[in-house]
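Troubleshooting log. The previous structure file for this entry was overwritten by mistake, so regenerating from the original sequence record. Sequence copied from the archived sheet and checked twice against the printout by T.R.
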Amino acid sequence: MSSNLKRPALGVIFYFGLMFSLGLYFTFASVQGDYGLFERVQIEAEVKELQLEHERLAAEVASLENKTRRMSDDYLDLDLLDQQARDILGLIRSDEIALN
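Regenerated output below.
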């Protein structure tokens, strides 16, 4: 007597188990991995922050370039020179009164 019981082959069970495990692994890696969605969101936020800092620094550099140009020998702004002498050196004119 031979039994005609049909049971799934171990190879098929192993194959589907392996495919399911690989699917879980790649899903996890695409969300949590080094190049996953969470990392991308974090990098995009850092890019926005660095762009704002770049804009702030570019404005500061432009302001300093303008002041440097105005203090150069070719273009001397007397008002700026007077302001810098007052601020940095603490100078005052003879007709002014300084209050502390």
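The chain has one domain: 11-89. Archived copy saved in two places this time.
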